[in-house]
């Protein structure tokens, strides 16, 4: 049993606000990709999926005169830093194990180079998986942030992914015992 499920995160009002801001459909797709990659590459599927779900919750709304201003965003964005901090606070409040909360926060911090002066970070395998998962779902011009999903479908997809994670963790546990 995990301390915190994806559904616990999804139901929290802070997650609701920021997941919607940067695109709930994208967040869920990245969580699924991260799970799949972590499963294939023998990494922690729960941490990968949580980091995938929360990776973009640090976005700020860079609007000027009612329109999204990409230049302003490019120049001033620090969404991985804000996202890492926001996700960490949320996870700790929900009762996540602190070591896991830190690992998830760091994976969010390093999911992109876009906010850094150089792109020479050496990532852990898990951090790289979250970056790949995000890139798998990216669309030209940032359109992935605007894809819509019905709230009920989103919920079902989160519950389905929780089930897949539980099953994977159970299987791992069994193989470790035998
Ligand atoms: Fe993203």
TrEMBL record:
Which organism was this protein described from?
A: Peribacillus deserti
Question: Which InterPro entries does the record match to this protein?
Answer: HD/PDEase_dom (IPR003607), HD_domain (IPR006674), HDIG_dom (IPR006675)
Instruction: Please give the NCBIfam families that the UniProt record associates with this protein.
Output: HDIG (TIGR00277)
Query: Residue limits of the HD domain?
Result: 23-139
- The protein in question is named HD domain-containing protein
Output the superkingdom of the source species: Bacteria
- What Gene3D superfamilies does the annotation carry? Hypothetical protein af1432 (1.10.3210.10)
């Amino acid at each position: 049993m995990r301390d915190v499920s994806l559904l616990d995160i999804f139901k929290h009002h802070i997650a609701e606000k920021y997941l919607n801001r940067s695109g709930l459909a994208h967040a869920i797709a990245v969580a699924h990709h991260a799970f799949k990659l972590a499963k294939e590459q023998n990494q922690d599927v729960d941490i990968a999926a949580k980091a995938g779900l929360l990776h973009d919750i640090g976005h700020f709304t860079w609007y000027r005169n009612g329109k999204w201003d990409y230049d302003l965003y490019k120049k001033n964005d620090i969404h991985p830093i804000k996202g890492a901090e926001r996700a960490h606070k949320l996870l700790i409040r929900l009762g996540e194990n602190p070591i896991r909360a830190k690992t998830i926060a760091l994976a969010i911090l390093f999911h992109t180079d876009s906010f850094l002066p150089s792109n020479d970070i050496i990532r852990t395998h898990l951090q790289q998986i979250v970056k790949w998962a995000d890139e798998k779902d990216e669309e030209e011009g940032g359109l992935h942030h605007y894809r819509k999903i019905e709230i009920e479908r989103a919920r079902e997809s989160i519950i389905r992914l929780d089930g897949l994670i539980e099953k994977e963790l159970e299987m791992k546990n069994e193989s470790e015992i035998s």
